[in-house]
Design a protein that fits this description.
Low-confidence stretches: 1-19, 176-217
Radius of gyration: 22 Å
Order of helices and strands: EEEEEEEHEEEEHHEEEEEEEEEEE
Structural class: mainly beta
Shape: globular
Strand content: 35-45%
Strand order of the largest sheet: 2-5-6-7-11-10-9-8
Number of strands: 22
Number of helices: 3
CATH topology of the largest domain: Protein Transport Mog1p, Chain A
Distance between the termini: 51 Å
CATH architecture of the largest domain: 3-Layer(aba) Sandwich
Length: 369
């Protein structure tokens, strides 16, 4: 069973679908590169890669941020796993694995999810420009073994620019690696090391804004919302879909530009803001068919050049798989909640699921002469 039938993305500057090629994060000042298989469901954002195996059973997430935000990256990853019914069991085993000359500190947890036993890996690497990289891998031992070739190739491709190659071999399929030369064999690991201790967040990044923080001058709302043919490569980069009718084999991709967020000043003249997004899929009559609370729950920082009309140049896209949904009329409804106030807004997008096109009739064989 696939872990997710719904994919969502929420970042400043969204990027396009990825294929079997090097992906660079961030594009302008690279902290990490990786290569994802072309048959995996991969989305690439400004500072994150989210990828699910073709069979839906392995999840790989690669994210980068400043080293002072490493604790927040780990917290966000664990929170997402918790929302998806993953429970970490006991203490992790700790190990160092070489990623093309850069040591990666691995914490491996035994876990349970809705399908049974699972293995969760958190891998942290130091990158250049005072950045850190977090890799999260989720999948059972059996599922990892099934996807061993692709999973090992991904890990071997992970490179910190100005470094060498990638890490892991059979470790990612659920096996273990002895201390010493690992992967490309370019570094020695004398003992297992834990990730650096989490640093306390800066006062400006706490979940509640300071008393002097400015209050948004308008209600929380949406500048634009539309169905699109592909994920966006950045704010304002959209390819609108002409009609709101979809075949069951298609995905319903919604692009949205929220406005009116509460902005909290942080160091350097930047501002911090955050959103929580819920969704429900409803029948035309209002019956709720599926949904999830806090499918997106994130905080972000925007610089002065990322502001338009007083609010961040900020967008997100939401992808809904409709395979198996009966033909008919539906409503995709979103609730957006400002993380720094009690303001909310709701957005509804009606759409139609068409009947699958009938298979072409077989061509009758010509009679023998």
């Amino acid at each position: 069973m696939k872990r997710w039938i719904v994919g969502a993305a929420l970042f400043i500057g969204l990027a396009a679908p990825a294929f079997a090629k090097d992906i660079v994060l961030p594009a302008k000042e690279p902290a990490v590169t990786a290569t994802m298989p072309d048959d995996w469901d991969t989305s690439v954002y400004e500072t994150e890669i989210a990828s699910v195996s073709a069979d839906g059973d392995i999840v790989v997430n690669i994210a980068t941020d400043s080293k002072s935000r490493l604790d927040s990256l780990i917290k966000d990853s664990k929170a997402y796993l918790t929302k998806n019914k993953v429970k970490l069991v006991g203490k992790p085993t700790e190990q160092t694995i070489d990623f093309n000359g850069t040591p990666g500190q691995v914490q491996r947890y035994q876990a349970t999810d809705k399908n049974g036993k699972a293995i969760i890996d958190f891998v942290t690497l130091d990158a250049n420009r005072n950045r850190a990289v977090l890799i999260t891998v989720w999948g059972s031992e059996d599922d990892r073994a099934t996807n061993e070739t692709a999973l090992s190739a991904i890990m071997k491709s992970v490179t910190i620019p100005a470094g060498g190659g990638g890490g892991g071999g059979g470790f990612w399929s659920g096996g273990s690696v002895q201390s010493g030369k690992v992967g490309a064999g370019k570094s020695e690991a004398s003992k297992a090391e834990a990730p650096a201790a989490a640093k306390p967040p800066a006062p400006a990044a706490v979940a509640s804004p300071p008393a002097a923080a400015p209050v948004a001058s308008q209600s929380l709302g949406v500048r634009r919302v539309l169905f699109v043919t592909r994920p966006s490569e950045g704010f304002g980069d959209v390819d609108p879909r002409a009609v709101g009718a979809f075949l069951p084999s298609e995905k319903v991709i919604t692009y949205m530009e929220p406005v009116g967020e509460t902005l909290v000043p942080v160091a350097g003249g930047d501002v911090r803001f955050g959103l929580v997004v819920d969704y429900v899929l409803q029948s035309k009559g209002g019956a709720i068919l599926s949904g999830q609370k806090a499918v997106i729950d994130k905080e972000f920082t925007a610089g002065k050049d990322g502001i338009l009309d007083g609010y961040p140049k900020f967008s997100f896209h939401f992808t809904l798989g409709i395979a198996g949904v009966d033909p008919g009329d539906y409503v995709l409804a979103f609730t957006l909640r400002d993380k720094f106030s009690d303001r909310t807004t709701q957005v509804e997008r009606p759409f139609t699921v068409l009947a699958a096109a009938p298979a072409p009739a077989p061509t009758a064989a010509a009679p023998a002469p």
